[in-house]
Design goal:
- This protein is mainly α.
- Helix 3 runs antiparallel to helix 4.
- The longest helix has 21 residues.
- The chain is elongated.
- The N and C termini lie far apart (about 55 Å).
């Protein structure tokens, strides 16, 4: 039912380090990509990986594993979404 699903979502978000990871760790300039579109893809990929990790790994470890995988993909995102010079 809908109330049970919302209770599950609230538990997943509030009982895990997902908010700490999203606000403090994933936004660190040394971890995130520099290009604008790369940051968007980085954020979406970390969100999806964190949801999968919380569901299938552990509520307490899933977001950190997602951040680890996302930070390893950062150089690829920077190269793929590199701004093209006009001149």
């Amino acid at each position: 039912s809908w109330p049970t699903a919302m209770t599950f979502v609230h538990y997943e978000v509030l009982a895990s380090p997902a908010l700490f990871m999203a606000i403090f760790l994933a936004a660190d300039p040394s971890v995130r990509p520099m290009a604008k579109w790369a940051r968007s893809v980085y954020a979406i990929s970390i969100g999806i990986l964190a949801a999968i990790g919380q569901r299938y790994l552990s509520v307490s470890v899933g977001p950190y594993v997602a951040l680890l995988i996302g930070s390893m993909l950062t150089p690829f995102f920077d190269r793929a979404f590199q701004p093209k010079p006009l001149v």
